[in-house]
Amino acid sequence: LTGSILHDDGCECTVNLNDTRGVDIKVEKLNKYFGELHVLQDIDLEIFAGETFSIIGPSGTGKSVLLKHIVKLEHPDSGEIYIDGFPIFANNKKQSERDYRYSMVFQSSALFNSLTVGENVGLWLREKRICKEYKIKEIIKEKLDQVGLAGKENLRTSELSGGMKKRVAIARSLAMNPDLILYDEPTAELDPVTTDELANTILKLKETTKNTTVIVTHDLNFALYISDRIAMMHGGRIVEVGTPAEIKKSQNPIVKGFIYTTT
Ligand code: ADP
Ligand code: MG
C-alpha cells in the first residue's frame, strides 16, 4: 500500500477503490488430504469473471475446504489454482498486474460485538488507513444502503437479528470493493423469510458490482435462485457443473438424489 490515488472528489486514498474487476478462477487437479481422508479429489473447476457461482452438496463433502483453498487458508497437496491466469500456490509465481482484493463472509458472520454496525463495516478501511475519515463514513453509508441497512450505523451489533448480522458481514466485505467475494453457507441459521431477503440482496448486488461471487451452500433452492452456474460436489469430487436449468434437469443420479432429498 504505497502512494496514493486521487479520487474525483479530491480525496486521497491509498487504494484505488474504483478499479474493481471480476476475477476468473481456474482450479486444476486439486488434491487435499487430512491424514487418511482424501477430502478434495482431482478438483477441476472454472469460474468466470463476474459470475455468481455456487458450490452445492451435502455436508462433509469438502465444500468449505475447497473455498478455503481459493483464499489460501488451506494449501493443497497437489494441483493449482489460477486467478486471472496467475498460479496462487506456485513458489516462483509471476506477479500479477495488480493484486486482486477478496473477502470472505464466514458462516458465523464473525462481527465484533463491542463495536457498532458502522464500526464493523469501516474496520478494514480505518485499520489500513485507506482514505480520509469523511470518505470512510461515506463508504460505510453506501455499503449499508446496498444491503438494506441504511441508517443503521449506530446500532450495537449485539442487538441485531441473525439476518441483520449477515447483512452487516456482507457490508463489511463490500467495504473494500472486492474483486472476489466468497460466502460460506450464507443461509445457515436463517429462517425462510430472511433467506429470501438475503437471496434478493445478493441478486441486487450483482447489478451494481462487477466482482466474481462464489457461494458454498447446502441450500439447493437458494443456489438455483441466485446463481449463474452451479457445481455439485459429492465425496470430495465435482460431479456436475451447469446452469440452474441444467442442474434441475440433470440425469446424474447423485444430482437427482440431492434434488429429491432437499425439495
Ligand atoms: P462441507 O462440505 O460440509 O463444507 P468441509 O469442507 O467442511 O465439508 O469438510 C470436509 C471433510 O474434511 C469433513 O470430513 C471434515 O471433517 C474434514 N475437515 C475439514 N477441515 C479439516 C481440518 N482442518 N482437519 C481435518 N479434517 C478436516
Ligand atoms: Mg461447510
From TrEMBL:
- Top-rank taxon: Bacteria
The protein's name is: ABC transporter related protein
Q: Which organism is it from?
A: Geotalea uraniireducens (strain Rf4)
One GO MF term on file is:
ATP binding
Q: What does the UniProt keyword field contain?
A: ATP-binding, Nucleotide-binding, Transport
Q: Which CDD domains match?
A: ABC_Org_Solvent_Resistant (cd03261)
| Stretches assigned to the ABC transporter domain | 25-260
Q: Does the keyword Transport apply?
A: yes
Q: Which InterPro entries match?
A: AAA+_ATPase (IPR003593), ABC_transporter-like_ATP-bd (IPR003439), ABC_transporter-like_CS (IPR017871), P-loop_NTPase (IPR027417)
**PANTHER family for this protein:** INTERMEMBRANE PHOSPHOLIPID TRANSPORT SYSTEM ATP-BINDING PROTEIN MLAF, PROTEIN TRIGALACTOSYLDIACYLGLYCEROL 3, CHLOROPLASTIC
